[in-house]
Amino acid sequence: MTILVTGGAGFIGANFIIDWLQTRDEGVVNLDKLTYAGNLRNLASVEGHESYTFIRGDIGDSVLVPDLLVEHKPRAVINFAAESHVDRSIHCADDFIGTNVVGVYRLLDNVLRYWSELPEAEQAGFRFLHVSTDEVYGALEPGAPAFTEDNSYKPNNPYSASKAASDHLVRAFHHTYGLPALTSNCSNNYGPFQFPEKLVPLFIHNALAQKPLPLYGDGRQVRDWLYVRDHCAALRQVLETGEVGEVYNIGGNNEKTNLEIATMLCEILDEIRPGNGGESYKSLVSFVKDRPGHDRRYAMDSSKIRRELGWKASETVESGIRKTVLWYLENQDWVAATVGGGYRDWIRKQYR
Ligand code: NAD
Ligand code: TYD
What we know:
By secondary structure, the protein is α/β, with parallel strands linked by helices. It is about 45% helix and about 15% strand.
């Protein structure tokens, strides 16, 4: 048996594949375009594993995808492939529409054709799991209840709008054609292999280089932080026992402001790697121009997945952030190989 993972060379997909090969006796085919966010170094530990196959390609490629489906006969597809950084979507949303909307449509269309040709028993067991985000629900007021699966979609930036479109397409392919699809919407992840354009790895990287830690606006925006391995465990659970056609919200029940996250990172670094010229790393925190359309608060109500599938997060934000800081400290060669010319161009453009 085999599963097809798309976008498996990115942050969450790579963690998912590594965990999968450690915990399951089932093959994985990884289809990834290797955009700036895709990095085969993330998968160095499984390269050469007999149950792992890498294919470079685009989820929207209607020649490649049908061929690889017929060749590898996956019993499930888990779609991680996406353009994923809000700030980049604000500069230019072309690639977000290309992959998150058109690419997902083509992937669904080709998977539907493949699924339609399967024998009945295999059709019944087949799953398409679409990995999405809490951002599709829009922003919460302080004190408002966390997002449930019944919240309406109110995406506020090009990234979340493109993900919302993909979620709607997945829903439609299930409803109209019967494709056995499920969708998961998850809160902010952090952990090993996250590209240092996102808040947590960017701040660790900058702190170690004694560079400013740029907090947008007043730094009081709230996110619900989840350790990536907890997300991967939730996805395995949804794949195995989730009900076809359903949506599952996944969150850490760990609401923190960005300022609290920055403070936590600095205090952990002060303890285990003191070095900002004798001062706390907190002195590097700097408030910069806010992100346009910045969503004030996200929070996920994960009671459905807990109640129905028995999943809950195992890390607190404190334990998960500490693990993450240690991972970045121990993997400075990964960081050095990741922050090349393209990365420096992005940082200059975004934070000039
Ligand atoms: P990422 O940006 O780190 O990785 C995305 C991967 O997709 C990269 O390896 C890239 O090369 C690949 N890719 C991009 N376009 C492709 C295409 N057209 N065809 C094939 N591969 C392509 O993203 P991530 O943080 O790992 O997120 C994975 C998924 O989880 C995304 O769908 C994202 O929307 C969702 N998500 C992320 C978070 C988070 O906090 N990072 C939270 C909730 C949901
Ligand atoms: P990010 O990691 O980009 O995830 P998302 O936008 O998907 O939530 O950002 C997390 C939060 O951190 C978000 O409120 C924006 C904020 N942020 C900063 O304040 N400074 C930064 O340099 C970055 C990248 C993010």
